[in-house]
Automatic annotation (TrEMBL):
Keywords: Acyltransferase, Cytoplasm, Iron, Metal-binding, Transferase, tRNA processing. Substrate binds at residues 136-140, 171, 184, 280. Binds 1 Fe(2+) ion per subunit. One of its GO terms (biological process) is tRNA threonylcarbamoyladenosine modification. It comes from Helcobacillus massiliensis. It is an enzyme of class 2 (transferase). Fe cation binds at residues 113, 117, 308. Residues 26-314 form the Gcp-like domain. This is tRNA N6-adenosine threonylcarbamoyltransferase. The gene is tsaD. It catalyses: L-threonylcarbamoyladenylate + adenosine(37) in tRNA = N(6)-L-threonylcarbamoyladenosine(37) in tRNA + AMP + H(+). Its cofactor is Fe(2+).
């Protein structure tokens, strides 16, 4: 068989992504984001996201083809996020992928969004390890996965957040500090000159007896809110840099502790961190230090592959094709609350 050229389509949140992958190699991708349209609301508004996807599908597909130097007719297979995600948003990508697969008469594969995140790093750093722990930290997810074989669906979902996702906590804290949206980059920028030990914010779910792989960030957000309220009530200045750095440190401490614990408990030698929050410098630095000390290999892809994108969906599709897996077919429906 000639090499497959797999088109991946992603639309589960606020990024419209198309990516082309062949034999584990990224040919190119196109991404559009409606993040700025959600800024005034401090979080993603599903209806706005869906409309933005509809506007973005054709130009973003064209951008991905141009970036890859691939003609539409060269595509051999189509892969698309079928869930989980915002229902109205997933539907737009699914409809686009069905239309492309039908028009080209090519097989269509439904891909679980988290499997896509777990696969993304292979496009930067080569084949996935035989087994490993994957930490997905974004605006929508905080998930710890024990991944053995993505193609065979041999993935153990170790834990999730019980309330806010890590990125969502960044977004909410940025909002209450008046820093804007999305929160991650602005909090990081504000935290550069801050003292991460200035405030001792809570590190949730780290006590003996707590679920070792579950996360909770809503208490942390509330603790920051209470701190700001008290300072304002007392007429004291709000030390934004110190609060941002202390908040960031609390999130990083929990993420690194739990990810390393999973590696240790499950006897895994590789930790992969993906999702928008993986862009965080403090997280990258602390995870690297902890992995070095524990003799664990850390894999973190480039930012474009950390955040939602079509290339990661194409990467899974490409693996399914090469493993000879049956396509899902055009009758596939969205599964907004799909679990692994
Ligand atoms: O993966 P992503 O682009 O979209 C999904 O939510 O699926 O992640 C977006 C999230 C936002 O909550 C944003 O605040 C966070 O990632 N983020 C960061 C950083 N850059 C983006 N969080 C912490 N530090 C950053 N540098
Ligand atoms: Zn995602």
């Amino acid at each position: 068989m000639t090499s497959p050229i797999v088109l991946g389509v992603e639309s589960s949140c606020d990024e419209t992504g198309f990516g082309l992958v062949s034999n584990g190699r990224l040919l190119g991708q196109g991404i559009a984001s409606s993040a700025q349209q959600h800024a005034e609301f401090g979080g993603v508004v599903p209806e706005i996201a869906a409309r933005a996807h509809l506007d973005a599908v054709v130009p973003t597909l064209e951008n991905s083809l141009a970036a890859s130097d691939v003609e539409l007719e060269d595509i051999t297979h189509v892969a698309v996020t079928s869930g989980p995600g915002l229902a109205t948003a997933v539907h737009v990508g699914l409809a686009a992928a069905k239309a492309i697969a039908w028009a080209l008469d090519k097989p269509l594969y439904g891909v679980h969004h988290l499997a896509g995140h777990a696969a993304a790093d292979l496009l930067d750093h080569g084949p996935l390890p035989d087994k490993g722990i994957v930490l997905i930290v974004s605006g929508g997810h905080t998930s710890l996965l024990e991944v053995h074989d993505l193609v065979e669906d041999d993935i153990v979902h170790l834990g999730d957040t019980l309330d806010d996702a890590a990125g969502e906590a960044f977004d909410k804290v940025a909002r209450l500090l008046g820093l804007g949206y999305p929160g991650g980059p602005v909090i990081s920028a504000a935290a550069v000159d801050g003292n991460p030990s200035a405030f001792r914010f809570p590190r949730a779910m780290l006590r003996p007896g707590d679920d070792p792989y579950a996360f909770s960030f809503s208490g942390l957000k509330t603790a920051v809110a209470r701190t700001v309220e008290k300072l304002e009530r007392d007429g004291d200045p709000v030390p934004v840099a110190d609060i941002a750095a202390s908040f960031e440190q609390a999130v990083v401490d929990v993420l690194v502790a739990k990810a390393l614990r999973a590696c240790r408990d499950k006897g895994m030698q590789t930790l992969t961190i993906v999702g928008g929050v993986a862009a965080n410098k403090r997280l990258r630095t602390h995870a690297q230090e902890a992995c070095d000390a524990a003799g664990i290999q850390l894999r973190v892809p480039s930012i474009d592959l950390c955040t939602d994108n079509g290339a990661m969906i194409a990467a899974v599709g490409d693996m399914l094709v090469r493993a000879g897996k049956e396509p899902s077919g055009l009758a596939i429906s969205a599964d907004p609350s799909a679990v692994l």
